[in-house]
Amino acid sequence: MAPSKPRVRFAPSPTGYLHIGGARTALFNYLYARRYGGTFILRMEDTDQERSTPESVKAILDGLNWLGLDWDEGPGKEGACGPYFQTQRLDTYRAHADQLLSEGKAFRCYCTREELTARRELAAKEKRDYRYEGTCHDLKGPPAGKKQEDAVIRFRMPSGEGEVSFDDKVLGVITKKYSDLDDWVMVRADGIPLYNYGCVIDDHLMDITLVSRGQEHVNSTFPQLMLYKALGWTPPDFAHLPLILGPDREKLSKRKHPEADVMLHARTGILPEALLNFVIRLGWSHGDDEVMTREQMVEWFDFDGVGRTSGVWDPVKLKWFNQQWFKLLPPALVAERLIPFLEARGIQARGDARLEPLVVALRERTQTLDEMANTASIYFRTGVTLDEKAAAKHLSGDSLGLLRQAREKLEALPAWTVEPLDGVVKTVSEAASVGMGKVAQPLRVAITGNTTSPGIGETLLLVGREEALRRIDAALARGG
Ligand code: GLU
Predict the structure, then answer these.
(1) What is the Å distance from ligand 1's center to 157 Cα?
(2) Beta carbons of 404 and 432 less than 8 angstroms apart
């Protein structure tokens, strides 16, 4: 049954750039919201004051904007459930913590960080798992020498035999015994909530109906469910997404895998449409469909298509998707995206009529904007650097004579358009009783410096008459 107007969220911790895993979580939530006419919320979980930075907030917003994953409520889009930065919600967290304290569902713990570290180290030495031992569980007030304002607030796990369970939309039913959970810290002494606590308060107050996030959070779901229960709130549905592995089959991580950075791909010339298309296939499928438009993604996405097996990063596939998108998008749009890559090479191509035909010619033979700009730059520059091997092979002996004949005919052409340009190659080769390649290749090397390019007529057209003749002259002069 289609859910009525779901409210879903992406809740990144702004401690670095937008990670591919984060982008996938955002995408899946976004698509689900769009498919069912719901709301996509962006919440900044910025409570780690040492690691959260305004630069990271900006990096995440930039990443989402580049991918075109627009949120309905969140930073810059205030809605009824704001603010959307956790550090701006501390009063709310305090109020609920006070309520839980007064009901005995939470308690103040005075154990210092040093004491806890020592106990944890002892446990490690004795090779047992450390679990908070309930030191302050039944205290009525601060122990001697300690102050209430130094205490953290812990959740009071109910004692006894119970278990907590949920039916994950991807993983199915998962259960944990109460005895496997401890009295976890909800709020630090300075009033800053810890992840499990802030997350539940916000997901509830923001009316979230389904929480979809990475599988690394499955275990957090149990303490979170205990909190929903303690507060008498109905929990949302959950859908935990499979891991994403790097090309080396290790968990895709910022530390080890540069490709985990969404904006790295913007810089290397992957189109956002292609990256999204690649990312949606990391753990989700719709039959054998590969290339999908945004509209199709919205039409087809649901959590029942999410698999349990990890998605593996395939760089060849990413480039393949990019080339498919080169061909799907209007050339004018690809040209627009190409301009900054040309500018980075010192080429001002804005407004140049050759841009769109160049895109059409080069999308067949290049896979990233960076590669396209590299090849395209040959057409905008004055002069060309010849590849030594290509020149030695094609700009010597008889080839030079053929090139000279071609040049004469080219110069005499009344119109510099593809057909007559190709016609020159044909006429010269027929007259000399050689294959067309014998004429086209020397020309191609003279014009582009190398042996691969679009059709020769097209290449000559794109370089332009004056520059083409100049390059041929330079090649002839070089060849003697
Ligand atoms: N801030 C958490 C993270 O970035 C959010 C996890 C969640 O979605 O609940 O991993």
Answers:
(1) 22
(2) no
The CATH number of domain 89-241, selected from 1.10.3720.10, 1.20.58.220, 3.30.300.30, 3.40.50.620? 3.40.50.620
Atom of ligand 1 nearest to the CA of 213: 8
State the DSSP H helix or E strand holding residue 173, giving kind and residue range, or none if neither: strand 172-177
Judge whether 197 and 186 are in contact, CB under 8 Å: yes
pLDDT band at 3 (very low <50, low <70, confident <90, very high): confident
Question: Looking at ligand 1, which residue's alpha carbon is closest to its atom 5?
Answer: 11
Q: In what order do the strands lie in the sheet with 237-241?
A: 39-42, 7-10, 210-214, 237-241
pLDDT at res. 160: 85
Handedness of CA 269, 273, 278, 280 (dihedral sign): positive
Q: Is 213 in the pocket of ligand 1 (CB under 6 A)?
A: yes
Domain boundaries, the chain: 7-86+244-312, 89-241, 329-379, 388-479
Spatial separation of the C-alpha atoms in residues 151 and 187, rounded to whole Å: 9
329-379 with 388-479: one CATH topology? no
Helix H or strand E segment including 447:
helix 437-448
CA–CA separation, 412 vs 424, rounded Å? Answer: 10
What average pLDDT is seen over the chain? 96
Q: Is residue 194 in contact with ligand 1, taking CB distance under 6 Å?
A: no
Q: What is the pLDDT of residues 428-437, one digit of tens each?
A: 999 999 999 9
Q: Is 370 exposed, middle or buried (0-12, 13-18, 19+ CB in 10 A)?
A: middle
Cα(12) to ligand 1 centroid in Å equals 5
- What CATH architecture does domain 7-86+244-312 belong to? 3-Layer(aba) Sandwich (3.40)
Nearest to 108, CA basis, from 192, 185, 178, 190: 185
For residue 462, give the nearest of 307, 364, 327, 353 by alpha carbon: 353
Distance 282 CA to ligand 1 centre (A): 19
The CA 187 to ligand 1 mean position distance, Å, reads: 17
163, pLDDT greater than 60? yes
CATH class, 388-479 region: mainly alpha
* Ligand 1 contact via 46 beta carbon (within 6 Å): no
What is the token pair recorded at 154? 């812990």
Ligand 1 atom with the smallest distance to the CA of 10 is 8
The verdict on domain 329-379 having CATH code 1.10.8 is yes
